[in-house]
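Same chain as my last thread, 224 residues:
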Amino acid sequence: MSDVDLNMRSRIVKVLTELEKQSVLERSGLAEVSHEDSMLAITSDTGKFFSILLSAMNTKKILEVGTSVGYSTLWFAYSFYQNKENHSMSKINITTIDNNPLKIKKATTNFKNAGVSGLIEIIEGNALKVLNQLSNHVKENPDDQSQYFDFIFLDADKENLQEYFDLAISIVKKGGVIVTDNVLYPEEYRPSMSKYIEHIRKKDFVQSVTVPIGHGEEVSLKIR
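reply #2:
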């Protein structure tokens, strides 16, 4: 690995470490922030899990629903530099969606500080609307493989999760993976998340399992 790649990884890790410290303060109650301003990020062990998974998959194209301050997005970017020998950086593409201007502003700053702004496209808007647009594009040109994502991460409002998944499955490639956060924690989400998991596992073209790491991740593979 070149000195440039090592420097980029170090920059990303520096920002990740700063965000992790902030997250610990928020969760411990030592930092008073409103729900609107809180990070609501994945845990660091979940980030490492994603980095390993994405590197093993040789992932080149990622979609994230729910940017927040960009913590998980930075882990995605980190995996690219970790696995750079296996693909050209010019082909990498991370698209992340959020409808909160304040969170987008913070995420943009974090991406800039980490030196990865060039890898990431932020779409501000309603996730259902954006996913519908992406799905319609695929329906119009189903043979255009460049439109399909290798990996999709769902970490937004829980009310629309089933719709998010049904749209996401139409734009992830065969052999691609969809991961959903918060399937185990917070505990108050469990009833709705149980219904969500039941919805997924009824589909015969999806293989899905709950991974008890962090807040609980549902990992779903599109098998056909």
